[in-house]
Queue: 2 jobs
Job 1
Amino acid sequence: MIEKTFEDDVYQNAKSWPFEEARKLLKRESIKKKGYALFETGYGPSGLPHIGTFGEVARTTFVRHAFECLTGMKTKLFAFSDDRDGLRKVPDNIPNKELVEKYLEFPLTSVVDPFGCHGSFGEHNNNKLMEFLDSFKFDYEFQSSTDWYKSGRFNEILLRVLQNHEEILSIMLASLREERAATYSPFLPISPKTGKVLQVNVEEYRVNDGTIVFRDEDGTLTELPVTDGNCKLQWKVDWAARWTAFDVDYEMSGKDLIDSVKLSSKICRVLGGNPPVGFNYELFLDGEGKKISKSKGNGLSIDEWLLYAPQESLSNFMFASPKSAKKLYFDVIPRQIDDYITHLENFEKQSPSKRVDNPVWHIHAGNPPRSETKISYSLLLNLVSACNTDDKSTLWGFIRKYIKDATPKNRPFLDRLVGHAINYYRDFVKPTKNYSVPNEMERKALTDLKESLKNLQSLPNTATAEEVQGIVFEVGKRYEFENLRSWFMCLYKNLLGQNEGPRMGSFIVLYGIENTIGLIDDSLNRS
């Protein structure tokens, strides 16, 4: 049983989407019979794992934890890899493509590993998936399609598909184009001669013998058992068979699979199963607004996100608005980190009923850490930009003046952020820096700001970020800028060489008044 940390009614009244999803499972009789709820996520290892794959596991885990809190019941999560599928094309983002080209149409666990470190391409990608899920400490059970087929554990459901092949065909054929329907079969035989997964017409279904008859690649009429890994199911039928064999209670999928879910649900019922509760999330888009593809590798990779941001920020990205299409590219990273920091700061001030709807409650399975930083990632980026350094100790010199007694040891999350900010600045900010030359009005305003900061510097007490921000506002109001945004744009372009920037009051206090005056002098001397 799950130990509950809040009163039951707090969970019952929670409004965040994972709780809404979890409530859909409360009436499933299959859960009561098993004594646990089974969640499943699918992975197609035809390409390297990407963040979309992680997103499905993370979101499913949010729902899983919410269900545990609502009911106190046990749960399981199967991370299922369809590694028995045939390789349709060579991915763009792998080495040694010429080696892999020889294995088109072979099961992924029979394709040579182009990376040279595992027994097959499928095994390599499965291990990459598990390494990543383990790094996030997900609680899951990895399941391999190849293992289930070849071990015989799918035999019973395969024979059931054979027995009901006519009804399954009637469901599927109505959804297919005429040319595809002419050769469609629920079964994909694996050639005993070549080892390829064959898309061929099945000439005879021998239900009593548990076999199918088809013509192999050389035209030979061949009879093959549907069991023990000799055949693979077409994927929509495979999905339904898996739901039935495992008795899956919950599985989410992308919006592009809505029609597939409907077909697989019908087939699941034909096989005597009860389709799982579902949830359709929107797809991720790359920097150009195109759908992310594993084979193209056109989105952010797992390693790339973690180079520029902490793991928690990626979970925050997955939690927010799962039914809205979102751009998944480098420029979303700073906002996601700062949103996570804000949620963490808010959590400590919230009531229990508000906390369970806070993203960090779900990200950390009900036990988020204490907030340890008052510095946003955006502010850190601008500090790195102003210092133009990759030396963490230099940056910590400024941070210690801003947060008394702060050290990398007692602020480990902040220390990680500093490292990420250095990487992000190096790769995305520094190459685009372009300092402006101030015009006459801007020179007057910058000179005014410089003198105002000098006056502030002479006062005995250290000014707060709010006080400095007020001074910056007042200086901007004294000049004929179109609006205050134009004034701040002037500061960003002239002092930082960027079109966007931080809250100036916080930045000046963090960077130091004297150092900021130095930036102003550099700008005034620029020609």
Job 2
Amino acid sequence: MSDFESIPLWPFAEARKLRDRLAAQGKAEALFETGYGPSGLPHIGTFGEVARTSWVRRAFTALTGMPSRLLAFSDDMDGLRKVPDNVPNPELLRPHLGRPLTEVPDPFGTHDSFGRHNNARLRAFLDAFGFEYEFASSTDVYRAGTFDRALLRMCQVHEEVRQVILPTLGAERRATYSPFLPVHPESRIVMQVPMEEVRADGTLVWKDEDGKRWETPVTGGHCKAQWKADWALRWYALGVDYEMSGKDLIDSVKLSSAICRVLGAEPPVTFTYEMFNDEQGGKISKSKGNGLSIEEWLDYGPPESLAWFMFASPGSAKRLHKGVIPRAVDDWLAGTAKAADPANPAWFIHADGAAPEPPPISFATLLNLAGIANTDDPAKLWAYVGKYLPDATPATQPLLDRLVRHACAYWRDFIAPARAFRAPTPEEREGLERLAALLREREVEFLAMPPGPDKERALQDLVYDAGRFGPFVTTNKDGSQGVGRAWFQGLYEVLLGKSEGPRFGGTVAVTGVEDTVRLIESALARAAAKLARG
């Protein structure tokens, strides 16, 4: 159909599946959905799911030109299972366990219920990132009768729905399972009780814990469906065409899809994304605190860098930790040059076409500068930047200013506490002395060069020349001599107290020859003094 047809990126692959579904169904508009459990606050996984779904939607629009909608659906009619440990006034919630979240008081005191409060937090969260979506409340949808026809249909095929779920349950649960959860007319608790009778006219007959018998209509918000049946009900009633979910919900997707077919509809195209791991590859646990929150990421990097990290290979497990942020920032900045190319992630991240021009200093270099300046003060870091870019100010370079602030925070919290300077080996001392001498010899030449890639390359060549001797020399495949990683690792460990970083020539270009030489001489003097003290 177009050039979009051959783009291999995963959002286009998903869009092609969705296009085929709509063609088979004879539909002219696609409905994307993403779900949210409002018993907790939005988190980094919420961002990932909505962002990825939005990217598939963008690919679908480009591929087909067909209209679409994205529905952010809140399961706010669920009963409150436990009191969260991160809310004020928890005693306010305890008497309301089991009641729909939209009938539980708001411990924050800002809305008429806990569910409405968290819904507002979700919408503010999505709005802050500029997502385009429609919002739906489970409570409102049930009460408005939107699900009534689907609920009546579920009554008619009640036993068939049960047979989908029963094989997955233990013996005791199998004996009592029903997809329906009536809301107790008096206590307002969402009841998990056996159904004595499920009538085709939509009446549920059941008893509460006191043995009192009730007849409850399934319609009008008087009951809701159990989780897997509820998901299928939503797909069936709303005509959902596409939904993503995490690997932990694979079985739920299978069961909900089977129930959707029992109800009489084809389930949507689904996509399973992998969960994040911690730095060691282990499962992230809130109780262990080994994950990374979205607030933490946004302290240390722009939201676009998080989007870049989320884009790559969502079907593969990724380690989410502080160490991935600098690379994600610089990869995003490099990608902005191709924001007009739909085969580049930046095309999805900057859907409005307003990709910024990357600043002339990388994020990794800013982290080096913070180490050289030994500061987490943006004003002091800007003093270095100003030497390299005399016309740049926070006002004229707002993106660079954001990066400076992120770099200061990242250096303060992660790099500075972990720094471990060491004394140079004799060979490293010789190489550092050679580097300082070469810099002094060509200082006037470098001062005359304008900022930019040519100056950075020239300084990087000089860094190579300083290390091209003795144990640091390597032989390339073509027989030429190169410089091994050991030289650069020693450079970083002796001068900056860490084992790696960006190309050192870029750091020298921004720091300046004079300050770089001073840094080298200070490090060598410090090591000599320590050696003299024994």
